Amino acid sequence: xxxxxxxxxxxxxxxxxxxxxxxxxxxxxxxxxxxxxxxxxxxxxxxxxxxxxxxxxxxxxxxxxxxxxxxxxxxxxxxxxxxxxxxxxxxxxxxxxxxxxxxxxxxxxxxxxxxxxxxxxxxxxxxxxxxxxxxxxxxxxxxx
Length: 144
Description:
By secondary structure, the protein is mainly α. It has one domain (7-142). Helices cover 74% and strands 3% of the residues. The chain has helices at 7-32, 39-59, 65-82, 95-112, 116-128, 132-142, and strands at 84-85, 92-93. Strands 1-2 form a two-stranded antiparallel ribbon. A hairpin with a 6-residue loop joins strand 1 and strand 2. Helix 3 (65-82) packs antiparallel against helix 4.
């Protein structure tokens, strides 16, 4: 049994748990605002990016950037599919959602490298930033 649970598997399990926490935190914020990408999407994107990064560091420690570049491109393609442009009004929707998913992949990559404090700071950032436009609206509503 010990052959299946080495230090590598323990590192992976910890990283996967951190991915779950970050994905839930970001996803709940997005779901609370009725956005299309919620908990499941963010958990999968963060964990997927972590897994690719983790595997990359295990398979080729000298060059993990090659796989990282492909994660950035792949998740960018996923995000592009989320963005909608209305033909009639010309409005663009889901741009922030696509950016949040792309940013979630970066968080997953940082977890894959074992950079937990950076991942936690970025998770907090991704919950605060979508609220900024609403803070300015709140300030206007408070003026007499």
